[in-house]
Specification:
Radius of gyration: 24 Å
CATH class of the largest domain: Alpha Beta
Oligomer: single chain
Number of domains: 2
Strand content: 15-25%
Length: 491
Amino acid sequence: MPIVPVPLFDFVMFGGTGDLARRKLVPALFHRFRDGQMLPGSRVLGAAREPLTSAGYREWARSALEREAAGEPELLERFLDAFEFIRIDLNGETGWSELAHWRAQRPDHVPVFYLAVSPQLFGAACEKLAAAGLNTVDSRVVVEKPLGHDLESANAINGVLARCFGEEQTFRIDHYLGKETVQNLIALRFGNSLFEPLWNADHIDHVQITVAEQLGLEGRQRYYEGAGAMRDMVQNHLLQLLCFVAMEPPSVLKPNAVRDEKVQVLRALKPLLGEDVRHHTVRGQYRAGVHGTEAVPGYADETGNPDSQTDTFVALRAEIANWRWAGVPFYLRTGKRLAGRASEIVVQFKPVRHSVFDPAIGVPPPNRLVIRLQPDEGMKLAVMIKEPGPGGLRLRRTYLDMSFAVEYAGKRFPDAYERLLMDIVRGEQTLFMRRDEVEAAWQWVDPILNAWQASGEAPRPYAAGSWGPSAAVALIERDGRTWFEDAEQMR
């Protein structure tokens, strides 16, 4: 399909010299410029406290694109022509009049204000934008997760956002929702008559959602020590994936119709309180171990805090109390320094009701759908077939494999940020969280965090390079199930 350009825009990055801007935002804009979706004439403004000039900022952006733009010097120069810089203090007066003047030069451009800064600065940035008259009806403001530390702080941030910008102007970004496979989950469920009739408690035994990382803190010690895996991953990424798996079909594929259904899932989650937290959640913290052939330090060593109670691993069992999902457990798991890197959703179907095969063959294992978000995006459906050859009927488990890398060989897949940034310019909010979604997620997560704190129990230790604490294995095996950890289990 031809690429449809977005309107001319002004993209203002607060925290414009930070890690997110360097690793994700600038490369994403470059690829959209290369493909013709970002039109020449759009502008990119870095806003930060560093005393840079616009020429210096262009050199900074050039270094960020060293790999992305290799062999394309002319294209890179045309892209960098869009870059300018203003020194701005989010807590002071420096730079705001200059920003207002810069915007006034292109009043017809769509203004996008991306807050790639600490959540503690969201409120100050929005209030300064409003005071400078930059919260016009066509402007968009983008905030990164995590939105707040708990429900109370999230409400405070959302309150400031609401005072300065309308809900239709506010984009709460979760980059997981921009991944190709999440889009394909919508297509799989609602574009195929094969799956939707089976997508319920009558046919599905359980669902697993895993986001496993092999890396450790990667320089994020200060942030992570105040967050942990529950706030950093479960409250947003994993619950958002759960919503897309479990939501009812929206009447139309429009932003509020989709988000209405996601909110209903979050509100239907059974609360985990008291003893339920102890029985149905596990939190862990990695100790020293081996990553590949390399010895790696433990979390406490990396942070320099031997008494840290921060969770780097969370596993939990959730249930959705509604007609479609009653009795179906959803197992969520995420952690750092694990044995493998994978983000995937596993939908385990129930076994056949009655086996017609010889008892010597055994009961055929149930079908399983694996939706992998990273790496090697794609989907696999495990099915039973007859093993070829004479000598009687022998069953074999195999799979129908739709790998994006194979199906679309040679085609480049845009990064999640590329899709989401262009959606922001267009004002398309389907893949962004609404205020009530954020609040509903915190309402479910807060009691778990409070129970952990009240218990006084330390996170369970696990060796770096393992699959987490043994208690996480016991969590699912108590129900007679096992974690899906190896693609060979598909066979």
